[in-house]
Amino acid sequence: MAETRHSKVLIIGSGPAGYTAAVYAARAMLKPVLVQGLQPGGQLTITTEVENWPGDTQVQGPDLMVRMEEHAREMGAEIVSDYISSLDLSQRPFKAHADSGITFTADAVILATGAQAKWLGLPSEEKFMGFGVSACATCDGFFYRNKEVVVVGGGNTAVEEALFLTNFASKVTLVHRRDTLRAERILQERLFAHPKVALQWHSAVEEVLGTETPPGVTGVRVRDVRDGTESVIPCDGFFVAIGHSPASELVKDQLELHADGYVKVEAGSTRTSIPGVFAAGDLTDHIYRQAITSAGMGCMAALDAERYLAGIEEVLDDQDTARD
Ligand code: FAD
Ligand code: NAP
């Protein structure tokens, strides 16, 4: 028979939001269960140095996330390696079906599923995915030792990816559709000063060019967005770093979402449109999207869940008293 496991609080996601929620919920004696998903540790596991986590001048993203996991375990959270494939928020207890076949039921759910990398949506990008097209320099940069690569995007991720790739590649061209970057000043300064970096402003990538056998990238065709002229930038690798979309697939037909897919929460809280369901981190935040803000929201979600459960218990206690 399929296994069912009940907890007071189910946390879905193991990024800074999920693990922080787990620490707080565990310390509130709620015995939370946290399901990690396909990327244990979340987005910070695909980066290297993190320089803006308070208390650490510099820490490797994956190391920080291992520490957060250990912290959550130490406080008493149960960490489960599994993936939630569907979630039913229409009845109580809430039900989450996992890939392993286990059904997790819970009185309160904290959603901390974060965000996923966006793609340009070009057929050629899909064709060469894994054969020269990547969205993770930390994962794939090593393959481009002494080769030329192109990065597209203008935010922190694109600039960090470009700088990271200079450790391997002989040349890194950053392609951006405007002539100003969104990235933090300190990162921009490092980028502009780097001798291996070239900048291609006002340009949109139209096609990834490559060979069929063996499959591999040979360049990207870009269009100048001002006058439409086209040119080819030769390269062996193409890195897409154009931002992230919220991972709200599980709840898209059940909770109120913003037009761009972020889960709506009541201002100043993590309460979603269904009582007992809370959302934290990049899943709900289209503005800040930082490790520290996600962790902060994870804390809020656990405190909100604790208050919600106390409220439920008060109602149940009142009903018991009325019956006596
Ligand atoms: P995420 O970290 O996105 O984690 C989401 C979690 O949900 C994952 O564990 C995933 O496995 C899980 N999940 C998703 N779907 C399911 C499911 N169906 N079932 C179970 N689990 C599921 N921020 C900084 O502050 N400083 C930095 O230096 C920095 N560098 C970055 C570098 C890169 C390359 C990237 C991509 C981001 C960086 N960020 C940085 C942003 C930061 O990583 C995010 O803001 C933060 O990780 C968001 O945390 P989160 O907990 O909301 O979600
Ligand atoms: P982002 O800040 O949303 O930037 C996305 C970039 O990609 C923008 O420059 C955007 O161009 C460009 N872009 C979007 N769609 C495009 C398209 N279809 N074609 C071409 N270009 C496109 O995303 P991000 O850089 O991934 O950062 C996400 C969040 O994580 C941010 O809050 C960021 O601060 C955080 N983060 C922080 C750090 C850090 O603190 N060191 C590191 C990485 C990420 P326009 O500028 O023209 O819109």
What does this molecule look like?
This protein folds into two domains: 4-116 and 244-323, 3-Layer(bba) Sandwich (FAD/NAD(P)-binding domain), CATH 3.50.50; 123-240, FAD/NAD(P)-binding domain (3-Layer(bba) Sandwich), CATH 3.50.50.60. The strands form five sheets. Strands 1, 2, 5, 6, 7, 8 and 19 form a seven-stranded mixed sheet that branches. The chain has a five-stranded parallel sheet with strand order 10-17-11-12-13, with helices on one face. Strands 14-15-16 form a three-stranded antiparallel sheet. By secondary structure, the protein is an alpha/beta fold. It starts with a strand and ends with a helix. 27% of the residues lie in helices and 28% in strands. It is built from seven helices and 19 strands.
Radius of gyration: 22 Å
CATH class of the largest domain: Alpha Beta
**What small molecules accompany the polymer chains?**
flavin-adenine dinucleotide, NADP nicotinamide-adenine-dinucleotide phosphate
Mean residue pLDDT: 95
Shape descriptor reads elongated
Quick take:
This protein is an alpha/beta fold. It has helices at 16-27, 61-75, 123-127, 137-140, 156-165, 185-193, 291-323, and strands at residues 4-12, 33-35, 49-50, 59-60, 78-80, 84-88, 94-98, 103-111, 115-117, 133-134, 148-152, 171-175, 197-200, 203-211, 216-224, 230-234, 237-240, 244-246, 277-279.
